[in-house]
């Protein structure tokens, strides 16, 4: 025990080692401080040169751990990229073209309903089901392209099978999904505009302002039409049910 304490003291301080060697009964002990310095020098030389067993024990495990961590990072990046759906450039290009086509396709219908509401051909054009069939087919096509195994779980993410905003936001991060939703809105908005136009013709109500709003903000245009219709009906009741000529409303 005494020898161990002496060796530890010698390793910690050269002055203590000199005082110990000055004692007669301990002069046989080697100079441990010099051995420690020589050992430290050999360890540093071997570590810097990368040779020897000491260097191999120190350096090789560190390099091995580093390669493992790098391989793990590469595998994690590959897994993340594989989990994210990649869209083919051709599909995105098709979605962009259908988006532009659908937008330009509905504009003439709103134009004739606003500029020529009394024309016979306008009413026949608006009553036709052709535009809704075209938009429905295009929407179904984009819906098939944008469909993925995560579509239904994102749409009905709630435990009550109701949509939730985070799920819908994630679903609309896809270009194909946004394009299909845009065609969906175009078809619904045009149908609502047609109903406003035909209701205006039937009850002799001004609809041009409501149709303009319906083209841009469909729910606002619907509310405007309901308010306009209520105001006209109140006016007619106040004037003994008199129905003004519809041509006067558009003059």
Automatic annotation (TrEMBL):
It comes from the Eukaryota. Keywords: Membrane, Transmembrane, Transmembrane helix. The chain crosses the membrane at residues 94-117, 129-148, 168-192, 213-232. Pfam families: ABA4-like. This is Protein ABA DEFICIENT 4, chloroplastic. It comes from Adiantum capillus-veneris (Maidenhair fern).
């Amino acid at each position: 025990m005494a020898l161990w304490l002496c060796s530890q003291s010698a390793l910690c301080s050269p002055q203590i080692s000199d005082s110990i060697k000055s004692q007669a009964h301990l002069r046989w002990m080697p100079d441990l401080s010099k051995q420690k310095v020589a050992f430290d020098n050999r360890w540093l030389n071997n570590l810097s040169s990368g040779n020897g067993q000491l260097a191999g024990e120190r350096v090789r495990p560190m390099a091995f751990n580093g390669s493992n961590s790098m391989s793990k990072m590469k595998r994690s990046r590959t897994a993340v990229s594989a989990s994210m759906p990649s869209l083919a450039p051709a599909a995105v290009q098709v979605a962009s073209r259908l988006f532009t086509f659908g937008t330009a396709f509905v504009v003439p219908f709103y134009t004739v309903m606003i500029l020529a509401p009394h024309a016979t051909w306008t009413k026949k054009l608006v009553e036709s089901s052709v535009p809704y069939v075209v938009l429905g087919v295009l929407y179904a096509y984009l819906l098939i392209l944008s469909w993925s195994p995560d579509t239904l779980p994102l749409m009905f993410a709630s435990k009550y099978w109701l949509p939730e905003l985070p799920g819908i936001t994630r679903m609309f991060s896809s270009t194909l999904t946004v394009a299909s939703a845009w065609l969906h809105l175009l078809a619904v908005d045009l149908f609502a505009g047609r109903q406003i136009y035909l209701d205006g013709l039937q009850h002799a109500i001004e609809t041009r302002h409501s149709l303009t709003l319906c083209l841009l903000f469909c729910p606002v245009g619907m509310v405007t039409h309901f308010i306009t219709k209520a105001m006209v009906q109140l006016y007619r009741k106040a004037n003994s049910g008199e129905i003004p000529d519809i041509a006067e409303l558009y003059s």
